[in-house]
Amino acid sequence: MASSAAAPAPEPRGVSASVSASSAVGGEELLPIRPPRSAAAASWTALGALIRRDLTVLGRNFVEFAARTVMQPLLLVFVFLYVFPTIGQGIGGSSTSPGESGFATVLVPGVVAISIMFQGIQSVAIQMSQEFGYTREIEDRVQAPCPIWLVAVARVLSGSCQALISAAIVFPIAAVVHAPGVEPDLHVHWPIVVTIVPLACVAMTSLGLVLGTSFEPRNIGLMFGFVVLPLVFLGGTYYQWTRLSPVHVGGFHWLQVLVLANPLIYVAEGMRAAFTEASHMHLYVIYPVLVGFCVLFLAIGLRNFRRRVLS
């Protein structure tokens, strides 16, 4: 008796005629194919990888980083708050004068501001000038799967983390290095600390981005002489902005007005608001101006960065 051939089972509705990712090929079952990531997801992944890479390098060289960070602030407080009062040459004339403690209260937040600024310039401007110069490392970074501007933002964010770490290292050292009887009057205001310190770090590293993309590697010495030093000495490190009013000509307080163009004055005044009870600029001025400097420096720095990369 002839047997009829069995008819093939009907294909289930909704199954594509093409081979699916989970079908068996050659006796092996393929893994499901993941859909491609969006450009935004790839950019954020690349941003995180760039920041982790910088922080990993920082961790491997942390001793060198800490020594570089501490050296200048330590020398400042050691000379002004220990050596000068001990030899009777400090502010107020003796180690027990109230003027000495007042100067210590002013100086400690000032050296924290200096450490943030120098670390922002060191981690962004100096490093970027090297990458644009002889190392050409910037060519590897811009090949990351993200927009060019995001590479610069990654450098700013990693530099901000380094500036934040430097502030955490410098403050306790500056608070304890002083001659007997020259104790700074410090009061930590945590709501201000957790807001003003990160904002100051971003502002100073954004300034570092501007400087690093504006100066050629061979002109770094010029940058320190004509930009960094005036910022330091006119940035309220050794004095309060509120105490500059006696410097005037014909009733016009020219120095108090002139230093308002210096971003470091707002960082230093913010540190005094965060760590002391000393008089300082109003916080409703400090916060908006620092945010404005962040936006301005990032806009200029990102434009310069793109031009340098594409040139």
UniProtKB/TrEMBL annotation:
<feature type="transmembrane region" description="Helical">
    <location>
        <begin position="222"/>
        <end position="241"/>
    </location>
</feature>
<dbReference type="Pfam" id="PF01061">
    <property type="entry name" value="ABC2_membrane"/>
</dbReference>
<keyword id="KW-1133">Transmembrane helix</keyword>
<protein>
    <recommendedName>
        <fullName>Transport permease protein</fullName>
    </recommendedName>
</protein>
<feature type="transmembrane region" description="Helical">
    <location>
        <begin position="188"/>
        <end position="210"/>
    </location>
</feature>
<feature type="transmembrane region" description="Helical">
    <location>
        <begin position="283"/>
        <end position="302"/>
    </location>
</feature>
<dbReference type="InterPro" id="IPR013525">
    <property type="entry name" value="ABC2_TM"/>
</dbReference>
<keyword id="KW-0812">Transmembrane</keyword>
<comment type="similarity">
    <text>Belongs to the ABC-2 integral membrane protein family.</text>
</comment>
<feature type="transmembrane region" description="Helical">
    <location>
        <begin position="147"/>
        <end position="176"/>
    </location>
</feature>
<feature type="transmembrane region" description="Helical">
    <location>
        <begin position="103"/>
        <end position="126"/>
    </location>
</feature>
<dbReference type="InterPro" id="IPR047817">
    <property type="entry name" value="ABC2_TM_bact-type"/>
</dbReference>
<feature type="transmembrane region" description="Helical">
    <location>
        <begin position="74"/>
        <end position="91"/>
    </location>
</feature>
<keyword id="KW-0472">Membrane</keyword>
<keyword id="KW-0813">Transport</keyword>
<keyword id="KW-1003">Cell membrane</keyword>
<feature type="domain" description="ABC transmembrane type-2">
    <location>
        <begin position="64"/>
        <end position="308"/>
    </location>
</feature>
<dbReference type="InterPro" id="IPR052522">
    <property type="entry name" value="ABC-2_transport_permease"/>
</dbReference>
